[in-house]
Amino acid sequence: MKFSGFKVVKEALTGHAGWKPLWRDPDPQPAYDIVIVGGGGHGLATAFYLASVFREQRVAVLEKGWLGSGNIGRNTTIIRSNYLLPGNEPFYEFSMKLWESLEQETNFNSMVSQRGIINLIHTDAQRDAYRRRGNAMLLAGADARLLDREALRKLVPFLNYDNPRFPIKGGLMQARAGTARHDGVAWGYARGADQRGVDIIQNCEVTGFRIENGKVLGVDTSRGFIGAAKVGVAVAGNSSRVMSMAGMRLPIESHVLQAFVSEGLKPTIPGVITFGAGHFYVSQSDKGGLVFGGDIDGYNSYAQRGNLPVVEDVLEGGMALMPMIGRARLLRSWGGVMDMSMDGSPIIDRTDIDGLYFNGGWCYGGFKATPASGYAFAHLLSTDTPHPTATAYRFDRFARGYVIDEKGVGAQPNLH
Amino acid sequence: MLIPHPLLGPRDAQEFIYLGDATLMHRPDATRPDAEAAFCDYVFLRHNPAGVHRELWFHEAGDRSWLVVTRNTVTHEIIGAELACDVKLGVTQ
Fold first, then answer.
1. pTM of the predicted structure, to 2 decimals
2. CA of A17, closest CA in chain B: separation in Å?
3. Which residues pair with A357 in a beta bridge?
4. What is the pLDDT along chain B (93 residues), one digit of tens a residue?
5. Domain B2-89 falls under CATH 3.40.50.150
């Protein structure tokens, strides 16, 4: 089934009787060439690119719950490539380019909307830092524009420009950044992978790895043993739990990050606005809800819910930035479990166990990376070499001293 | 979350700064021949359990003591708290 305007009109005229499930619900086969653990955004993207770009024939995705039940459905849907460091920026720009062609490649409306992102500037030092960042972005082929206060005021007149503590002096804008429909991304990848022969097996929890003589033979699951020549783990949030079954300790702590949405409002906020100094960022969904968030709670957690002090902190940040949201009511808040790595950057690498590969440590920035993460992980699984944009995301960077620390705060995950 | 401070009674977790796994109290011996690998483990690797976790909290807005708090990372239930110096000296286990 291919989606098209013609198909939509035809179904509208025939009582919508012709729509079919977007993917099969197959039973697991005894063995596969490649098994992906984790049916979230990154796992499904990996499967999609394995089948579509790398022409792998026998691939399965194992998901312990239902498809896309983790952080792909819990994030604040922002896509951007405004990083600074050379290990990061080319990778995220590669991701941005994949976002731009995603809907054509998957034939699925993921509502990718390049409505722009603005990082606010409050001091001269911050302007210098953002000018440097913007130049780093341009060097990596991304777009960046430094806005002065008046240019910014034309775009977003409703901000509190004269806040005594954080007066707004300008912003760094990436116009190609924006938002996407997060669930639609998972569904588009799942449908695309399924159409290319990938078995997506839901309600199938991996309970152990079968490893002999340093080589992985497959995974034990709640639906029996599944053999695999290669196993790729993409379970960010629960990476430490899953990899401990293979006897590994990771440079990762799990933390909870909260997100919020207001009641639906008329179109107000043109793109994404980040107020780093106040721990607040916001965009507006197509349904009209203001989607916003702030910092992680700051303590280890697997609870998928946070505590009230952070709710207060985020809302205070929002009120300081745009007092008009005081009139809006908060509709929902929720939490997701983040793989907070020791330098704030991800890992896509082989492990010391032959045939076992790892993708994780995405901190609170995994959603925007979904396409490139999947592509790079598929590249690694299929060719055994890292993708050119992901060569820095190695396990051994910590021991070698080549950490990728965007914020420069050291091995303290709750500060990233 | 309320942390049952052994000296001050229940205190709001907002008064504390979180550091992480309580094993960070046990710094490796820098004179050992394998000290480099041991420090790499110490600085970067974590058990990160889902469930009971012993962790260091600093009472910054209070008596500035370090506590070892035992907490469940799945439910956020706080099971107990001891002074880190007592733990280090072996007064409590």
1. 0.96
2. 44
3. A232, A350
4. 999 999 999 999 999 999 999 999 999 999 999 999 999 999 999 999 999 999 999 999 999 999 999 999 999 999 999 999 999 888 765
5. no
Q: Are A129 and A85 in contact, with CB atoms under 8 Å apart?
A: no
Interface pTM, i.e. ipTM: 0.95
- Do residue B48 and residue A342 have CB atoms under 8 angstroms apart? no
Query: Residue A299's CB: how many other CB atoms inside 10 A?
Result: 24
**Rounded Cα distance, A307 and A385, in Å:** 42
> What is the rounded distance in angstroms from the CA atom of residue A48 to the CA atom of residue A189?
6
Q: Kindly determine whether residue B73 and residue A253, on different chains, have CB atoms separated by under 8 Å.
A: no
Residue type for position A118? I
Report CB contact under 8 Å: A251, B46: yes
Going A371 to A374 to A377 to A378, the CA torsion angle's sign is: negative
Residue A53 burial (CB count, 10 A): 14
Which one, of A64, A75, A73, A4, lies nearest residue A203 by Cα?
Answer: A64
Q: Where are the domains of chain A?
A: 23-81+83-108+182-251+343-415, 117-175+253-341
Q: How does pLDDT run across B7-25, given as a tens digit for each residue?
A: 999 999 999 999 999 999 9
Instruction: Give the Cα separation of B45 and A347 in Å (integer).
Output: 14
Options 3.40.50.720, 3.30.9.10, 3.40.50.2300, 3.10.450.50; which CATH number does A117-175+253-341 get? Answer: 3.30.9.10
Residue the block writes with tokens 């196993």: A231
Q: For residue A111, what are its two tokens?
A: 């509502």
Q: Is there a contact between A257 and A296 (Cβ–Cβ < 8 Å)?
A: yes
Give contacts of B 28-67 with A, CB under 8 A.
37, 40-41, 43-50, 53, 55
CB A63 within 8 A of CB A203: yes
Length of chain A: 416
pLDDT in tens, A377-410: 999 999 999 999 999 999 999 999 999 999 989 9
